[in-house]
Every structure is written in C-alpha cells, then in structure tokens.
Design goal:
mainly alpha; 5 helices
Length: about 120
C-alpha cells in the first residue's frame, strides 16, 4: 500500500453539480492505482474524500459502523443519486420549449412527465 498524495485524492461535497457515479469511479481508480484493494483500506480512505455536507452525512451514517465497501457505495449513491439527477432534470425542464406543431396539451404532458 502506497501513500497517496493529497492532491490526487478526489473530493465530494454533496453538491448537485458533481456526479456521484463519476466520483466513485475516480475513487476506485485511485484505490486501484495505490493498491488500496480491501474493504477496510477503502473505508478508511473514503471519509478523507468527503467535504462539507457529504462529510456530515457520512459522520452520522449508520452509527459510524461500516464494514462493507460495496454497501457503502450503494448507500452513498442512494443518498446522492437524486441530488445529481434532479439537477439534470431541472436544467432540462428550464430549457424546454414547444416544438413546431406541438399542442399546448402535448407540451404540458411532456413537462409534467419530466417533473
């Protein structure tokens, strides 16, 4: 196991502009590159990647007892998937315009579908 330089460690703040899937991919690549391959190694490093709201969530997560990296990823994505997805949907909704020959009813139906 090698020491990881701080500037190589990705960070996640829990903001809507950061894709949690991309973050976990970057974290996994980092772990592989520095031979952090076991669950305890990954779980020990993971909190140092979290900042602000994401770190507060982690510190209150499951009473601080986490033993399985795959379960940690599932729980992390459960928490942050909707944050990121909702941002994408908001952007789509705000950019929606009526299409040529589209009725108002069709536009409203499409709008409501995206909510």
């Amino acid at each position: 196991m090698k020491t990881i330089p701080l500037q190589h460690i990705p960070t996640f703040h829990g903001l809507t502009m950061k894709d949690p899937y991309v973050f976990l991919f970057e974290f996994d690549v980092l772990c592989q590159g520095y031979d952090y391959t076991t669950d305890p190694q990954k779980l020990k490093l993971f909190p140092s990647t979290l900042k602000a709201a994401a770190l507060r969530w982690f510190m209150g997560f499951n009473g601080g007892i986490i033993n399985d990296w795959n379960q940690m990823k599932v729980d992390f994505l459960k928490k942050y998937h909707d944050y990121y997805t909702s941002r994408e949907l908001k952007d789509e909704i705000f950019q929606m315009t009526t299409k040529p020959n589209e009725t108002m009813e069709e536009y409203v139906e499409c709008f409501q579908y995206n909510l």
